[in-house]
Write a structure and sequence with these properties.
The structure is a homodimer of 248-residue chains.
Chain A: E1 10-15, H1 20-32, E2 37-41, H2 49-55, H3 59-63, E3 66-68, H4 71-75, E4 80-84, E5 95-97, H5 98-109, E6 114-118, H6 127-130, E7 135-138, H7 150-168, H8 184-200, H9 210-223, H10 227-240
Parallel strand pairs in A: 1-2, 1-6, 2-3, 4-6, 4-7, 5-7
Chain lengths: 248, 248
């Protein structure tokens, strides 16, 4: 089964969620990153108005959510499941960082359904739940306070899944839109104009112009001036020139 | 100023937040990744019990949060500010992905305070707010629904900042060649001085200053002005001011 996007093959499974607001916020986090398959194992309250409110424009994901009464049903037809856990010593599985796990999940999701499992807000996943999964995932965090909110953890993982997908298609981040750059000639004209105004105003000693003009050149060189900016600066120089009008 | 961790030099600035729950969730998101400096520009409700509840064990960050009545006060002594925006065509600054921006911010934060700015839940940052920053940041997202919850966006950025730090620990960044950078406060002083000279010389209509000043802000934002350059430019402005001397 090769879906339109591998992300369509990644399901988010929330086990025993207490606060319906977190379910809504999870739906929103998923949708912003292009995920859509939500499974809920024994949620305490669902459906719920708080979930709807926090979902914002991702209510379609709540409406399509599958509610299951046990984990086996939720993971049923997946081929790889990853368990989100806090850092602990007693884990039975290899522990992946969020970024590593996302790359692994996306790679598999090109071919078949995979799952990412999140536990209770208070206590995370039980050892029994983790044992249903093939790998565990940890979000690198502050060792003194590593307790991410449930939906915030979903947001980070969904973001890493999207990033893993974008990187794997080697789609470079689009080049920033560039306004029309000034020509070197235009920039030379600006420097000459600036030097004249500096001299006319008494700011620059014409006998010793080197250092100051070199500083200004360096500043404008870093800037990569645009055509329109050169025009604005020259307009300003003309306006403040004590001996205006300046003829270029 | 080299703090214990570069993350201590990264401040999160929330502008005009409507929902106090998002402020609390932001504090939690920050603390899980080791960030601690929170600035609030005109929050609608703060302090607030909903903020406290959502902060969970990160109330210390709420208690230490700085509340400011304008953006300049919040960014005052930082040296680099990045604006979180949705993808748009009309942005004046180079757009970085979350990951690129995190690397850039952490590198600078080794040396001086930097800021990451988030706008209103409904409408994001205004063009005027963005013009205070040197770069814009976009979290890669679903083009059909890219509206992350505010605290979820903070969580992703805080996570990327931590990841950038962890990655840069193994391969230490060479200290960027840094002539002493101008503080945002010094740059604000320059903009104010420039505006005055523009008005005195008749170049700028004080009734319609917006567009031209925004262009100048954008130009100097790209430049990353140095302290000495600000001094040179202000010296020049003083010399050409038709109504000099200028008092700052």
């Amino acid at each position: 089964m090769n879906p339109a996007s591998p992300l369509d093959n990644v399901r988010i499974v929330l086990s025993h969620t207490s606060h319906p607001g977190n379910i809504g916020a999870t739906a929103r986090a998923m949708k912003t990153m292009g995920l859509s398959k939500l499974y809920l194992v024994n949620p305490k309250f669902f459906p719920d108005s708080e979930a709807d409110a926090r979902a914002s424009n991702a209510r379609d994901i709540l409406e399509a959510a599958q509610v299951c009464d046990n984990l086996t049903a939720a993971l049923g037809d997946t081929f790889l499941a990853a368990a989100l856990t806090a850092r602990r010593r007693d884990l039975p599985h290899p522990a992946y960082s969020a970024r590593q796990a996302a790359a692994e999940l996306v790679q598999h999701a090109r071919h078949y359904p995979v799952a990412l499992l999140f536990g209770r807000e208070s206590a995370g996943l039980t050892a029994a739940e983790i044992s249903h999964c093939q790998l565990t995932v940890q979000i690198p965090a502050n060792p003194d306070y590593s307790s991410l909110n449930l939906a915030a953890a979903v947001q980070v993982m969904a973001y890493e899944l999207r990033m893993a997908l974008e990187e794997s298609v080697t789609e470079p981040y689009p080049a920033p839109h560039l306004p029309e750059a000034a020509s070197l000639q235009e920039i030379e004209g600006l420097h000459h104009h600036l030097e004249q105004v500096m001299i006319h105003s008494g700011f620059l000693d014409p006998e010793q112009p080197k250092h100051l003009m070199r500083r200004m050149r360096r500043l404008f060189a870093r800037t990569r001036l645009e055509k329109e900016e050169v025009n604005i600066l020259r307009g300003l120089l003309a306006a403040v020139d004590p001996r205006r009008p300046f003829k270029s």
